């Protein structure tokens, strides 16, 4: 059985939902073919039988004109359902459309849509509707269109809020990084996430619209008699409520059961829609255990003494600040995020300042530092997507194009196509609602222009290339059905879909267990070697740097403090912070004794000292270090350090 069918069967196993579905099917059958339910004409009058109870001739009794209540109910269903459909469609199209745009685009669009929603919400619906039915008497379509519009304000708000939070999800960032346009992201990635929410809201709109429609008919604004309508029947029953209370039961029950069925079905459909991709308990457990940070057991450092090359491939290019053979050249890159360190402050906060770094073709460069030093912000800023709509200054030349000044059209040719991105947690960077193969094929087709069939073949090749032995099976899975290691391989395949020249990988092994870490690192090294792929690898792990990288760029408090070939980093680190990091590296520590640590913590952005930012934690700091900012000085063609005393060898312990 295929997945939607299996979900439908599971949902229909609930007795109440099954009853609701049967009832709604009956109402629908009445609306489409009332003659199948009753042989009587709804306007035929049988005066001798007026105000009669249920009988063989009239199973649900008659009204004061002797009209058969069953046939009036059956023939009234069409108008009732039509009104509900108009209201639901109007509210859903307007609510979802505007809510999506406001939530995704933000800014002026959000403000305008927000005001419109407030306006619609503040209008007294019943008064507006009475005016509309007075101007267009008996026109259910216009009345329900108006009502749907008024009800859309609620949908606008919930869809906007859900879109805003979905927009912050990493898989949306990944989709933008992969070069998808806004309509594609909304259609493929955001809308499916809102399915459950929209279904529930639409079912509520249906229930409210039905009640409102009946109320209008009850007030005499429904279809003119003798045309049958459920609300009109309730009005008729009201007139004879004392003499013949039974007349109220059939239409009242029909309205109540239909409202209840809409709500029950809405809930069930929501569960069904989300069940297709919702995280299973197993996947949740896997993810939780995967997130637990493990100590690195990456291949042991290849050259802690500086004797062997770091990258197990061809020799690295000359490397170093400003070398000619660069693919990516970042100069004085600063990132300012909106808001200040103090709550409500109007000024921005600089979280990364004056970063210089280079990556050559085929080179693997490690961006290292403690948590909060600015590694991720730097990586995302290179991709033009700093967190929180940050502002960039400086330059970032990639194969001749300054990415800081690139426009949307230029970004579409770069993101995903020439620069791939692998996020920290692959589970959250893959869209949970789509099968892996579908997501990959979409990326392949977009970047390469291949047709459906060749794109599918390429997907299987990519999955095989990243070490998945059964690519067919992997392609059919949803992200939550993958193990952590498989998901990271898929994420790497995703990043390679456009055959990029540069891969930016942000702690790609953090969420994995130790065995998988080593496998993924080996995969990155092999991929870089085979494709001559440049890699900027964000990591806090010097073991990974030693095993994989050609050069290292050490960051501290938003700045680069040292940049050099990995051999030099391990043989003769020049910045006290680098020395502190190396001394605190568990791979290099001797078994006996305590592991040295760097005392203190990284200062938060906005609290950086005026002079050397590391001075408060540095054992070598003197008064002169604290007076003025320290520049990044060249010590050699490939070595730069931000320290006034680079030749002293004590560690920051
Ligand atoms: N969206 C944001 N809004 C405000 N501040 C942010 C935001 N994202 C990052 N920062 C701040 O920017 C600084 C650098 O963060 P970043 O994530 O780049 O550090 P990191 O070195 O990558 O650390 P980690 O290894 O923990 O990811 C931190 O002080 C962080 O609090």
UniProtKB/TrEMBL annotation:
Subcellular location(s) of the protein: Cell membrane; Membrane
Pfam family, any one: ABC_tran
Regions crossing the membrane: 81-104, 116-136, 142-159, 197-221
Keywords associated with the record: ATP-binding, Cell membrane, Membrane, Nucleotide-binding, Transmembrane, Transmembrane helix, Transport
Lineage: superkingdom: Bacteria
Region called Disordered, residue ranges: 280-325
Keyword check for Transcription regulation: no
Biased composition (Basic residues): 282-295
ABC transmembrane type-1 domain sequence ranges: 77-266
ABC transporter domain mapped to chain residues: 330-582
Topology within the bilayer: Multi-pass membrane protein; Peripheral membrane protein
Keyword Transmembrane: yes
Similarity remark: Belongs to the binding-protein-dependent transport system permease family. Belongs to the ABC transporter superfamily.
PANTHER family: DIPEPTIDE TRANSPORT ATP-BINDING PROTEIN DPPD, OLIGOPEPTIDE TRANSPORT ATP-BINDING PROTEIN APPD
Identification of the protein by name: Dipeptide/oligopeptide/nickel ABC transporter permease/ATP-binding protein
Organism of derivation: Micromonospora antibiotica
């Amino acid at each position: 059985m295929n997945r939607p069918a299996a979900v439908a069967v599971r949902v229909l196993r609930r007795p109440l939902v099954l009853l609701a579905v049967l009832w709604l099917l009956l109402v629908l059958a009445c609306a489409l073919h009332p003659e199948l339910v009753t042989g009587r004409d709804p306007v035929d009058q049988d005066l001798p039988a007026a105000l009669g109870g249920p009988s063989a001739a009239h199973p649900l009794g008659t009204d004061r004109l002797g009209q058969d209540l069953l046939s009036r109910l059956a023939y009234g269903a069409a108008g009732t359902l039509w009104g509900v459909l108009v209201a639901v469609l109007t509210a859903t199209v307007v609510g979802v459309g505007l809510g999506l745009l406001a939530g995704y685009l933000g800014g002026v669009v959000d403000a305008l849509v927000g005001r419109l929603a407030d306006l619609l919400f503040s209008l007294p619906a019943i008064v507006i509707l009475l005016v509309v039915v007075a101007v267009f008497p008996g026109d259910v379509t216009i009345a329900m269109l108006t009502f749907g519009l008024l009800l859309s304000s609620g949908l606008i708000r919930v869809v906007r809020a859900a879109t805003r939070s979905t927009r912050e999800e990493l898989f949306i960032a990944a989709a933008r990084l992969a070069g998808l346009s806004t309509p594609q992201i909304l259609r493929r990635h955001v809308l499916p996430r809102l399915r459950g929410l929209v279904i529930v809201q639409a079912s509520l709109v249906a229930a409210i619209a039905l009640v409102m429609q009946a109320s209008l008919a009850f007030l005499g604004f429904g279809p003119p008699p003798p045309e049958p309508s459920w609300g009109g029947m309730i009005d008729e029953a009201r007139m004879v409520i004392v003499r013949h209370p039974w007349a109220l039961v059939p239409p009242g029950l029909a309205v109540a059961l239909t409202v209840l069925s809409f709500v029950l079905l809405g809930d069930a459909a929501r569960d069904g829609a989300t069940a297709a991709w919702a995280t299973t308990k197993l996947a949740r457990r896997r993810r939780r255990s995967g997130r637990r940070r493990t100590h690195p057991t990456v291949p042991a450092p290849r050259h802690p003494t500086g004797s062997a090359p770091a990258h197990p491939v061809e020799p690295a290019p000359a490397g170093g600040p400003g070398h000619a053979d660069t693919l990516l050249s970042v100069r004085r890159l600063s990132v300012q995020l909106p808001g200040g360190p103090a709550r409500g402050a109007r000024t921005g906060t600089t979280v990364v300042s004056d970063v210089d770094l280079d990556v050559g073709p085929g080179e693997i460069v490690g961006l290292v530092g403690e948590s909060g030093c600015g590694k991720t912000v730097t990586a995302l800023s290179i991709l033009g997507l700093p967190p929180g709509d940050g502002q960039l200054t400086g330059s970032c030349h990639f194969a001749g194009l300054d990415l800081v000044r690139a426009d949307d059209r230029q970004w579409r040719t770069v993101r995903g196509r020439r620069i791939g991105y692998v996020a920290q947690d692959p589970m959250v960077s893959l869209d949970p609602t789509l099968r892996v193969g579908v997501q990959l094929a979409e990326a392949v087709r977009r970047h390469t222009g291949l047709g459906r069939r060749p794109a599918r073949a390429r997907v299987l090749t990519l999955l095989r290339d990243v070490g998945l032995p059964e690519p067919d099976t992997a392609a059919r899975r949803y992200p939550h059905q993958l193990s952590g290691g498989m998901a990271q391989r898929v994420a790497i395949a995703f990043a390679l879909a456009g055959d990029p020249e540069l891969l930016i990988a942000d702690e790609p092994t953090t969420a994995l267990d130790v065995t998988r870490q080593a496998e993924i690192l080996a995969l990155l090294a092999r991929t870089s070697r085979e494709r001559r792929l440049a890699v900027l690898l964000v990591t806090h792990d010097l073991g990974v740097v030693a095993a994989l990288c050609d050069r290292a760029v050490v960051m501290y408090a938003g700045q680069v403090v040292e940049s050099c070939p990995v051999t030099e980093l391990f043989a003769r680190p020049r910045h006290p912070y680098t020395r502190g990091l190396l001394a605190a590296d568990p791979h290099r520590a001797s078994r006996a004794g305590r592991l040295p640590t760097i005392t203190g913590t990284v200062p938060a952005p906005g609290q950086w000292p005026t002079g050397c930012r590391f001075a408060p934690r540095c054992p070598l700091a003197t008064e002169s270090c604290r007076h003025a900012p320290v520049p990044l000085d060249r010590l050699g063609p490939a070595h730069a350090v931000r320290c006034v005393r680079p030749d002293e060898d004590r560690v920051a312990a």
